[in-house]
Design brief:
Largest sheet: 5 strands, parallel
Structural class: alpha/beta
CATH class of the largest domain: Alpha Beta
CATH topology of the largest domain: Rossmann fold
Mean pLDDT: 90
Number of strands: 9
Helix content: 40-55%
Shape: globular
Number of helices: 14
Oligomer: single chain
Length: about 300
Protein backbone atom coordinates (compact mmCIF):
# COMPACT_ATOMS: atom_id res chain seq x y z
CA UNK A 1 0.00 0.00 0.00
CA UNK A 2 2.76 2.44 0.92
CA UNK A 3 5.38 1.32 -1.63
CA UNK A 4 4.38 3.86 -4.35
CA UNK A 5 4.23 6.63 -1.75
CA UNK A 6 7.72 5.80 -0.45
CA UNK A 7 9.08 5.65 -4.00
CA UNK A 8 7.68 9.10 -4.68
CA UNK A 9 9.06 10.42 -1.39
CA UNK A 10 12.51 9.05 -2.26
CA UNK A 11 12.62 11.23 -5.38
CA UNK A 12 12.40 14.30 -3.14
CA UNK A 13 14.37 13.19 -0.07
CA UNK A 14 16.80 10.49 -1.12
CA UNK A 15 18.42 7.98 1.21
CA UNK A 16 16.12 8.70 4.18
CA UNK A 17 13.45 6.00 3.80
CA UNK A 18 13.62 5.04 7.49
CA UNK A 19 13.03 8.62 8.65
CA UNK A 20 10.22 9.08 6.12
CA UNK A 21 8.51 5.91 7.34
CA UNK A 22 8.84 7.08 10.94
CA UNK A 23 7.27 10.42 10.02
CA UNK A 24 4.38 8.66 8.27
CA UNK A 25 3.93 6.33 11.25
CA UNK A 26 3.78 9.36 13.53
CA UNK A 27 1.03 10.89 11.38
CA UNK A 28 -0.93 7.63 11.23
CA UNK A 29 -0.67 7.25 15.02
CA UNK A 30 -2.19 10.73 15.48
CA UNK A 31 0.98 12.04 17.07
CA UNK A 32 3.23 15.03 16.48
CA UNK A 33 6.79 14.98 15.17
CA UNK A 34 9.95 16.77 16.30
CA UNK A 35 12.85 16.91 13.84
CA UNK A 36 16.17 17.91 15.38
CA UNK A 37 19.04 18.72 13.06
CA UNK A 38 21.27 21.39 11.59
CA UNK A 39 19.78 23.95 9.19
CA UNK A 40 19.66 22.87 5.56
CA UNK A 41 19.13 19.14 6.13
CA UNK A 42 15.68 18.94 4.51
CA UNK A 43 13.45 19.27 7.56
CA UNK A 44 11.12 21.81 5.93
CA UNK A 45 11.11 19.80 2.70
CA UNK A 46 9.98 16.68 4.58
CA UNK A 47 7.08 18.57 6.18
CA UNK A 48 5.96 20.01 2.84
CA UNK A 49 6.32 16.57 1.22
CA UNK A 50 4.02 14.90 3.77
CA UNK A 51 1.41 17.60 3.27
CA UNK A 52 1.53 17.00 -0.48
CA UNK A 53 1.39 13.20 -0.25
CA UNK A 54 -1.66 13.21 2.03
CA UNK A 55 -3.41 16.25 0.54
CA UNK A 56 -3.29 18.21 3.80
CA UNK A 57 -3.71 21.96 4.24
CA UNK A 58 -0.25 23.27 5.09
CA UNK A 59 0.97 26.26 7.04
CA UNK A 60 4.46 27.21 8.14
CA UNK A 61 5.30 29.28 11.21
CA UNK A 62 8.83 30.66 11.42
CA UNK A 63 9.63 30.92 15.13
CA UNK A 64 11.76 33.84 16.31
CA UNK A 65 12.72 35.23 19.69
CA UNK A 66 10.27 38.15 19.44
CA UNK A 67 7.20 36.09 18.58
CA UNK A 68 4.09 36.19 20.77
CA UNK A 69 1.48 33.44 21.33
CA UNK A 70 -1.03 35.49 19.32
CA UNK A 71 1.22 35.14 16.27
CA UNK A 72 0.44 31.41 16.40
CA UNK A 73 -3.09 30.94 17.70
CA UNK A 74 -4.67 34.19 16.49
CA UNK A 75 -6.08 37.34 18.03
CA UNK A 76 -9.42 38.90 18.96
CA UNK A 77 -10.08 42.31 17.38
CA UNK A 78 -12.82 44.66 18.48
CA UNK A 79 -15.47 45.33 15.84
CA UNK A 80 -16.92 48.80 16.47
CA UNK A 81 -19.91 48.09 14.23
CA UNK A 82 -21.12 45.14 16.32
CA UNK A 83 -19.45 46.20 19.59
CA UNK A 84 -18.01 42.68 19.84
CA UNK A 85 -14.63 41.06 19.63
CA UNK A 86 -14.10 38.92 16.51
CA UNK A 87 -11.56 36.12 16.60
CA UNK A 88 -9.10 36.01 13.71
CA UNK A 89 -7.50 32.53 13.53
CA UNK A 90 -3.73 32.22 13.38
CA UNK A 91 -1.63 29.85 11.26
CA UNK A 92 -2.14 26.98 13.72
CA UNK A 93 -5.57 26.53 12.13
CA UNK A 94 -4.38 24.12 9.48
CA UNK A 95 -4.07 20.35 9.06
CA UNK A 96 -0.29 20.14 8.90
CA UNK A 97 1.50 22.89 10.80
CA UNK A 98 5.26 23.29 10.47
CA UNK A 99 6.68 24.99 13.57
CA UNK A 100 10.03 25.87 12.05
CA UNK A 101 12.95 26.34 14.46
CA UNK A 102 10.59 26.14 17.42
CA UNK A 103 13.39 26.50 19.95
CA UNK A 104 14.24 29.99 18.70
CA UNK A 105 11.11 31.25 20.47
CA UNK A 106 10.75 31.81 24.20
CA UNK A 107 9.01 29.30 26.47
CA UNK A 108 5.86 31.46 26.59
CA UNK A 109 5.49 31.33 22.82
CA UNK A 110 6.40 27.64 22.64
CA UNK A 111 3.64 26.88 25.15
CA UNK A 112 1.02 28.37 22.81
CA UNK A 113 1.08 25.04 20.97
CA UNK A 114 0.46 22.86 24.05
CA UNK A 115 -3.34 22.96 24.04
CA UNK A 116 -3.48 22.60 20.26
CA UNK A 117 -1.23 19.52 20.30
CA UNK A 118 -2.96 17.83 23.22
CA UNK A 119 -6.63 18.78 22.81
CA UNK A 120 -6.80 19.74 19.10
CA UNK A 121 -8.42 23.02 20.05
CA UNK A 122 -7.62 26.63 20.94
CA UNK A 123 -9.12 28.62 23.80
CA UNK A 124 -9.31 32.39 23.43
CA UNK A 125 -11.37 34.78 25.61
CA UNK A 126 -13.25 31.85 27.21
CA UNK A 127 -14.24 30.57 23.77
CA UNK A 128 -13.06 27.21 22.44
CA UNK A 129 -12.24 26.82 18.75
CA UNK A 130 -11.73 23.29 17.37
CA UNK A 131 -8.86 22.69 14.97
CA UNK A 132 -9.11 20.86 11.67
CA UNK A 133 -8.88 17.10 11.48
CA UNK A 134 -6.46 15.50 10.95
CA UNK A 135 -4.14 17.83 12.86
CA UNK A 136 -0.41 17.18 12.66
CA UNK A 137 2.38 19.38 14.04
CA UNK A 138 5.91 18.99 12.75
CA UNK A 139 8.39 21.07 14.71
CA UNK A 140 12.02 21.53 13.74
CA UNK A 141 14.65 22.19 16.35
CA UNK A 142 18.20 23.44 15.95
CA UNK A 143 20.95 21.95 18.15
CA UNK A 144 21.21 23.65 21.55
CA UNK A 145 24.82 24.55 20.79
CA UNK A 146 23.66 27.07 18.18
CA UNK A 147 23.19 30.72 19.13
CA UNK A 148 19.75 32.10 19.93
CA UNK A 149 18.05 28.87 20.99
CA UNK A 150 15.86 28.17 24.02
CA UNK A 151 15.55 24.57 25.25
CA UNK A 152 12.11 22.97 24.97
CA UNK A 153 10.68 22.19 28.43
CA UNK A 154 10.02 18.55 29.28
CA UNK A 155 6.24 19.06 29.13
CA UNK A 156 6.56 20.30 25.54
CA UNK A 157 8.90 17.49 24.49
CA UNK A 158 6.47 14.92 25.87
CA UNK A 159 3.77 16.23 23.50
CA UNK A 160 5.81 15.00 20.56
CA UNK A 161 5.14 11.36 19.88
CA UNK A 162 8.43 11.02 17.99
CA UNK A 163 11.73 12.77 17.50
CA UNK A 164 13.88 11.99 14.46
CA UNK A 165 17.19 13.20 13.04
CA UNK A 166 17.75 13.42 9.28
CA UNK A 167 21.56 13.76 9.41
CA UNK A 168 23.93 14.29 6.49
CA UNK A 169 23.27 12.41 3.22
CA UNK A 170 25.79 9.86 1.97
CA UNK A 171 28.16 10.88 -0.82
CA UNK A 172 26.15 9.38 -3.68
CA UNK A 173 22.89 10.92 -2.48
CA UNK A 174 24.53 14.30 -2.00
CA UNK A 175 25.86 14.17 -5.58
CA UNK A 176 22.30 13.70 -6.87
CA UNK A 177 21.18 16.66 -4.74
CA UNK A 178 23.98 18.86 -6.10
CA UNK A 179 23.37 17.96 -9.74
CA UNK A 180 19.59 17.41 -9.72
CA UNK A 181 16.58 19.71 -9.91
CA UNK A 182 15.68 22.01 -7.04
CA UNK A 183 13.61 20.08 -4.48
CA UNK A 184 11.08 22.92 -4.31
CA UNK A 185 10.41 22.52 -8.03
CA UNK A 186 10.04 18.75 -7.67
CA UNK A 187 7.51 19.26 -4.84
CA UNK A 188 5.22 21.17 -7.18
CA UNK A 189 4.72 18.01 -9.26
CA UNK A 190 3.78 15.77 -6.31
CA UNK A 191 0.21 14.49 -6.34
CA UNK A 192 -1.59 13.19 -3.23
CA UNK A 193 -1.19 9.44 -2.74
CA UNK A 194 -4.13 9.34 -0.31
CA UNK A 195 -7.16 11.52 0.32
CA UNK A 196 -7.88 13.07 3.70
CA UNK A 197 -10.78 10.63 4.12
CA UNK A 198 -8.45 7.70 3.48
CA UNK A 199 -5.95 9.07 5.99
CA UNK A 200 -8.60 9.40 8.70
CA UNK A 201 -9.79 5.84 7.96
CA UNK A 202 -6.22 4.53 8.25
CA UNK A 203 -5.77 6.34 11.56
CA UNK A 204 -8.85 4.54 12.84
CA UNK A 205 -7.79 1.14 11.48
CA UNK A 206 -4.40 1.33 13.17
CA UNK A 207 -5.94 1.02 16.63
CA UNK A 208 -7.27 -2.41 15.57
CA UNK A 209 -3.78 -3.81 14.90
CA UNK A 210 -3.36 -6.66 17.39
CA UNK A 211 -0.83 -6.46 20.23
CA UNK A 212 -0.28 -9.66 22.19
CA UNK A 213 -0.15 -9.75 25.99
CA UNK A 214 3.51 -10.80 25.74
CA UNK A 215 4.34 -7.61 23.83
CA UNK A 216 2.37 -5.55 26.34
CA UNK A 217 4.62 -7.10 29.01
CA UNK A 218 7.64 -6.05 26.93
CA UNK A 219 6.39 -2.45 26.70
CA UNK A 220 5.80 -2.39 30.47
CA UNK A 221 9.29 -3.79 31.05
CA UNK A 222 10.67 -0.85 29.03
CA UNK A 223 8.67 1.62 31.10
CA UNK A 224 9.65 0.03 34.41
CA UNK A 225 13.33 -0.13 33.47
CA UNK A 226 13.37 3.60 32.71
CA UNK A 227 11.68 4.41 36.04
CA UNK A 228 13.92 2.30 38.26
CA UNK A 229 17.19 2.65 36.38
CA UNK A 230 20.17 4.38 37.97
CA UNK A 231 20.87 6.21 34.71
CA UNK A 232 17.83 8.53 34.40
CA UNK A 233 16.44 11.39 36.47
CA UNK A 234 12.85 10.44 35.66
CA UNK A 235 11.30 7.50 33.87
CA UNK A 236 8.91 7.25 30.95
CA UNK A 237 5.32 8.35 31.59
CA UNK A 238 2.13 6.41 30.75
CA UNK A 239 1.79 8.81 27.79
CA UNK A 240 5.13 7.46 26.52
CA UNK A 241 3.80 3.92 26.92
CA UNK A 242 0.76 4.76 24.79
CA UNK A 243 3.05 6.40 22.24
CA UNK A 244 5.05 3.16 22.03
CA UNK A 245 1.92 1.09 21.43
CA UNK A 246 0.33 3.39 18.86
CA UNK A 247 3.57 3.96 16.95
CA UNK A 248 4.27 0.21 16.88
CA UNK A 249 0.76 -0.39 15.51
CA UNK A 250 1.36 2.26 12.82
CA UNK A 251 4.74 0.73 11.92
CA UNK A 252 3.12 -2.71 11.56
CA UNK A 253 0.36 -1.18 9.41
CA UNK A 254 2.88 0.44 7.08
CA UNK A 255 4.49 -2.98 6.62
CA UNK A 256 1.12 -4.63 5.88
CA UNK A 257 0.94 -6.66 9.09
CA UNK A 258 -2.21 -7.24 11.11
CA UNK A 259 -0.32 -7.67 14.38
CA UNK A 260 2.62 -6.04 16.11
CA UNK A 261 5.85 -8.02 16.32
CA UNK A 262 8.88 -7.30 18.56
CA UNK A 263 10.82 -5.80 15.64
CA UNK A 264 8.11 -3.13 15.27
CA UNK A 265 8.72 -1.95 18.82
CA UNK A 266 12.49 -2.04 18.38
CA UNK A 267 12.23 -0.03 15.15
CA UNK A 268 10.30 2.87 16.68
CA UNK A 269 11.77 2.76 20.21
CA UNK A 270 14.60 5.33 19.73
CA UNK A 271 12.24 7.88 18.16
CA UNK A 272 9.80 7.48 21.05
CA UNK A 273 12.01 7.50 24.16
CA UNK A 274 15.26 9.39 23.55
CA UNK A 275 13.74 12.89 23.72
CA UNK A 276 11.80 11.96 26.86
CA UNK A 277 14.67 10.63 28.97
CA UNK A 278 17.05 12.85 30.93
CA UNK A 279 20.35 11.18 31.81
CA UNK A 280 21.83 11.90 35.23
CA UNK A 281 24.84 14.20 35.03
CA UNK A 282 27.18 11.66 36.64
CA UNK A 283 26.30 9.03 34.01
CA UNK A 284 27.18 10.95 30.82
CA UNK A 285 25.67 8.32 28.53
CA UNK A 286 25.32 8.90 24.78
CA UNK A 287 22.10 8.08 22.94
CA UNK A 288 23.74 4.99 21.46
CA UNK A 289 24.66 3.77 24.95
CA UNK A 290 21.12 4.44 26.19
CA UNK A 291 19.63 2.36 23.39
CA UNK A 292 22.07 -0.44 24.16
CA UNK A 293 20.66 -0.57 27.70
CA UNK A 294 17.11 -0.95 26.40
CA UNK A 295 18.08 -3.43 23.69
CA UNK A 296 19.49 -5.72 26.37
CA UNK A 297 16.00 -6.19 27.82
CA UNK A 298 14.52 -9.61 27.11
CA UNK A 299 12.15 -9.71 24.13
CA UNK A 300 9.24 -12.17 24.30
Amino acid sequence: MFTPLLQTANTIISGKEEQIKLAIACLLAKGHLLIEDLPGMGKTTLAHLLAKLFGLNYSRIQFTSDMLPADIIGISIFNKNTAEFNFHPGPVFSQLVLADEINRATAKTQSALLEAMEEQQITMDNETYPLESPFFVIATQNPQTQAGTFPLPESQLDRFLMRIVLDYPDRQTERSILTGKDRRELLQDIKPAFSIEQLIKMQQQIRNIHISSALLDYVQDILQFSRHSQYFLTGLSPRAGLALLHAAQAWAYIHNREMVIPDDIKAILPAIILHRLVVKEDQNYSEQQIMKLFNELAIP
